[in-house]
Amino acid sequence: MRARTPPCAVLRGRRSFPRRAVTSPVADARGAGPPNATASHSRPRRRYQLEDESAHLDEMPLMMSEEGFENDESDYHKLPRARIMRRKRGLEWFVCGGWKFLCTSCCDWLINICQRKRELKARTVWLGYPEKCEEKHPRNSIKNQKYNVFTFIPGVLYEQFKFFLNLYFLVVSCSQFVPALKIGYLYTYWAPLGFVLAVTIMREATDEFRRFQRDKEVNSQLYSKLTVRGKMQVKSSDIQVGDLIIVEKNQRIPSDMVFLRTSEKAGSCFIRTDQLDGETDWKLRVAVSCTQRLPALGDLFSINAYVYAQKPQLDIHSFEGTFTREDSDPPIHESLSIENTLWASTVVASGTVIGVVIYTGKETRSVMNTSNPKNKVGLLDLELNQLTKALFLALVALSVVMVTLQGFSGPWYRSLFRFLLLFSYIIPISLRVNLDMGKAAYGWMIMKDENIPGTVVRTSTIPEELGRLVYLLTDKTGTLTRNEMVFKRLHLGTVSYGTDTMDEIQNHLVNSYSQTQSQASGNNASSAPPRKAQSSAPKVRKSVSSRVHEAVKAVALCHNVTPVYEARGAAGETEFAEADQDFSDDNRTYQASSPDECGNMAREGLRTLVVAKRALTEEQYQDFENRYNQAKLSIHDRTLKVAAVVESLEREMELLCLTGVEDQLQADVRPTLEMLRNAGIKIWMLTGDKLETATCIAKSSHLVSRTQDTHVFRPVTSRGEAHLELNAFRRKHDCALVISGDSLEVCLKYYEHEFVELACQCPAVVCCRCAPTQKAHIVKLLQQHTGRRTCAIGDGGNDVSMIQAADCGIGIEGKEGRQASLAADFSVPQFKHIGRLLMVHGRSSYKRSAALSQFVMHRGLIISTMQAVFSSVFYFASVPLYQGFLMVGYATVYTMFPVFSLVLDQDVKPEMAMLYPELYKDLTKGRSLSCKTFLVWVLISIYQGGVLMSGALVLFESEFVHVVAISFTALVLTELLMVALTVRTWHWLMAVAELLSLGCYVASLAFLNKYFDVAFITTVTFVWKVSAVTAVSCLPLYVLKSLKRKLSPPSYSKLSS
Question: Model pTM?
Fold first, then answer.
């Protein structure tokens, strides 16, 4: 009889043995036997039944009402019809946005015609001979720039003038070049517009130049290329498909390659993939055995070999290919999988590697999973853009009324255009300037906040978005957690060891090994190792010491932990010098890749791993190895075939132990998530980890409360299965949803609208096994289906697409590098800072911008109302009321500082906003800048403009210049008083701005003798008339505001009191 070989010995001898054979999930460790006959016959029948049913699914939409829940759950033919939204057709569809859809479709069609995308195909790559490639492949250059030399100015101008506000300013400014339409000085129109454009162009040019420098640095990195004549240096951008590239330790891999050789004697190496998949653990990669066995590097050119690679794909976790050597007899065929690849943007962590390039440039996995950044526009800017359109319609209507009352006499069209220019201050050109300066001020305040040190504002155009968020999508590893695994529990079935009883495990191991050594010394006649003698002994009930010994031995041997030795010698060592290094304990570190998690998650939120073993005879192992290698050589359905072979081995296993490790959460993650939930923000966790791990972290971080039900969406692969599972999920109420990326893809393919509608009703959603592009797709779906503002938070390179797709992207600087923080709009060092960033700075930025923008529009509306009254009194003449410096001074030195000081205003103290996050819910409703508030400001402007102009006309005595003096002085005083009326919390700089502006105006009266009668403005009559007009315009508003605060106070005032 041949002795049964212990599994650990087999595992150490064969590297190709699958990882899952020892660390099996609980479902596999139960020892499931072959399926019974009934089950095997029922599966095909069920499959055909689903195929027949799927043909009718178009006629049976998902159940979206409660009335059908009494129906039989097993028969979805009887479910009631869902609500079918009628699509708008005809003229209504065209007016409500169809024209924009048609224009976009036409532009996309023209772009596709001009730039046809090359079809991606599988390829055959000959080692070291790029000239043998049958097709042209893209250059291996990285380009993150948005413009080039020719498109920079047109592109920036287009981004500015595609908004109605800026386009209107441009048309008004250009009209002043026409003599018949000229109203005032050119600088009064072109100076503000030129300032905005200059600031924008300088900012874009700076950002573009920085992107150019980063791209140039990456593309200019030198690598060693192996040729027939030896090594030569080549730039990263000059690397081609088929080149043999040598990558040193700690060097970035320039393109997607197949791993051929390494300086490590084991034929494997580790790579860091944090900038690709966001995981900080090192990944083990194995060289192609055929090329690794070659005596020297130069022998790579002495063989005739090629690599067959599948077409470029998005999936970074899979690869199918074959390596073939034709000059051997018989030809050598070796299957290639993900463990034989070196993807671009990863870093070699151990040894020196040699690989053959298979994908370059735009076809690499890292580039294909990165979406192009978009120019983000805040919701406040879009709302202001709509309001300016309404103001423009009012401007046109007012001008038409004036021309109509004039009787269309003479060249009426010229009068119409002059009236349009006279009333153009209805849309003030200073609005854009004040908003941009305010945004810059908010960014400076955020970065100077001592409570959130290290916060960086990288996009200064959308700080108000922080106060309008409804959906927050976050990564898990490194964002919510520290990414530090701590061993917490070892469970042997009847006994459990925790962190406080680890010394007992140590004692059991000492006792077990001392007994083993005594048995070995007493058995001198036997030359076989003691463990082999034990393996053939009859099975008896094992002691605790022996069970601990078996469990620790399995964990210690069957893993991906490998010691890495750091060199202490000179830097100029050869690539094969690691054998001469110091292997002492002081010079040794350990690296590992994450083990597989099982489905049984501990109540404490630990990541658990079931460890089991099975002893194989040599015949069993040879049979498994043959079937395993044959499955790995398959080109079609390789993954399924390999999984089937592995599953056949994972039966009748002996359970050894259950281990638990804790991925510790970052500081204050739980209170921060609770604060965000109380603020009405719905949190979605999108992670690339497994379903069990994601569920565990969701519960431990209190993203899902312990009392809350969790619905785990079963894996679905077809339309019928998705239909049934969605209806089952529809019956659940107030429960968190946990779904995998594959099931999500199927649901979105057939039931996109229904799934998003159901998911948005959940208090929390967890999506696991998400690819980088899938994360971005989820963000875009929420934007399209809900119309709400989204925020994405991540810390790794795999989160960049999600961050760029969201309305507001926040990057966390962690262990996974700075790629996410550099691509984000805001960067924070820890997750807990997001609470203050949203509750305090998001609130204040939105409130301040809303008040500032409406006040600037009020400032233009009031002077346009005065102009309308003036023209009406003087026979509808298109003559300006104020000319020259008066108009420039009104918009700048006389009122600019007090109006801009509104960026210091705050309705709630920061401590109160953090204590009562429920106040944030009001911000998402957009009540600070709405049609109602805008209409109130319009009525105030009409009232005050009418009072100021009418009062001046009634009180003036003899000369028209007195009308100008009284009305303009009262106008300036009214604006200063209105700023004081609008302020909710005074800041000392506000008082300084008020006094400074008043002093500037009083001082300038002495120099404005061209517009004012100096003798008149120094009299008491002038003073009392101005005071009377100002009091009539402002006093009623003060009374109304006091009554409103007393009778209907806002929610925050109740808290403040």
Answer: 0.71
